Amino acid sequence: MKKTTYALAMAALLASGASTLAADTKLGLLMDITGPIASFIPPLQNAANLAVQHVNENGGLLDGQVVPVYGDTTGSSQGAVDAAGKLINVENVPIIMGALMSGTTISAAEAAAIPAGVVQISPTATSPAMTDINDNDLLYRIVPSDNFQGQVLAKMVLDEGIEKVAVTFVNNDYGVGIGGTFIEAYKALGGEVVAEVKHEEKKNSYRSELATLSKAGGDALVVVAYAGDSGSKIVKQALEGGLFTKFIGTDGLRDEALISDIGAEALASSFFSAPTSPADNPNQARLHELYTAAYDEPADKPFVDQTYDATFLALLAIEQAGSADRGKMAEALRAVASAPGEKVGPGDWAKAKALIAEGKDIDYDGAGGNYDFDENGDVAGVIGKFVVDGDVYKQIAIFE
Fold it and tell me: What sequence ranges are listed for the domain Leucine-binding protein (predicted)?
């Protein structure tokens, strides 16, 4: 939603009486607005606001409008618990879209959402640890687990003819999950990991870790970290020390902040993996058209597709449930996300609302693909291979 549209909506809400307030429904949007992935956030907020706008301008939610309520995790576990607790206990949201980082998503789920019986749907959290959480069918995500991304990345590296690598991964749920999966898969496929170092967040210098990694040799350095925290520092310090020239990263490093910090020329031989949409997905093209029209900027940013889809799915679940009853959200979410049902996609709110009113099944296929949840709230997915192209990332291959 554009800022002016949102401001007008909020002004109308505040000026309305109690009867209008009673008809509107709050949606919890739990995001890591500040912290290590802050550079990712503005287009993701735009994507979430666009989904809300599509609902409010095309029939509304239930008998009223959607009121988006943001919570900032600050990129920390305690911040995630506090922000989720406020959304749940103060704002009384029926469902939460978010969080984004694996660690903040898990912390919010275990300490706040699951005990309160609130469904959480993350557009970006990839840690394998999420799969086995005892969540009472309350925790979902619409990107594949890093068990898959790690395997795909191992294949990417070997397909490039890189048979020896050094690996460093950040010591959190995200880094440990994908780092361990990559190392295991790469070795199983015949690659050699000459050294692996688990590093801590928020350090000013990683030169000692890099010295250990460089001394072991290797044709490239695999970095599993967030660009806004340790990732960019490691790449920059490796280049400054002449220790590595080729870098391989995952979605946390596929951040335009890395290009700004390092420069495209220095990253010319590097490549990155990240969840993406199936090839030639018409729903992705449709969302990007809608996004560009709304914000006058391109939509090909990391996780814009998934953030829109997760927000739209959360709103579809409320409409399907017929109320803001938290206890009905999990069943409703599974119903609108999975076959059978008439297909709906980005922007199709009026169609979806009418079908639900008629008692018909719907099946949302999004900009990021289809989302048939398994018993753990996980989905299959697609991983893209990206390279630096000027000041942006260009997708050059897809692995399904």
Answer: 26-337
Task: State how far Cα 56 lies from the chain centre.
Answer: 24
Tens of pLDDT, residues 31-42: 999 999 999 999
Are 172 and 37 within 8 A, CB to CB?
no
Where are any strands of DSSP class E within 123-163?
A: 139-141
Helix (H), strand (E) counts: the chain: 15, 15
| CA dist., res. 325 & res. 122, Å (int) | 20
**Before 99, cis peptide (omega within 30)?**
yes
Backbone angles phi, psi at 98, to 5 degrees: 125, 180
Strand-strand pairing, 383-389 and 271-275:
antiparallel
C-alpha distances (whole Å) from 103 to each of 23, 176, 177, 213 are 34, 11, 11, 26
Domains of the chain: 3-144+280-370 (3.40.50.2300), 146-277+383-399 (3.40.50.2300)
pTM, entire model? 0.89
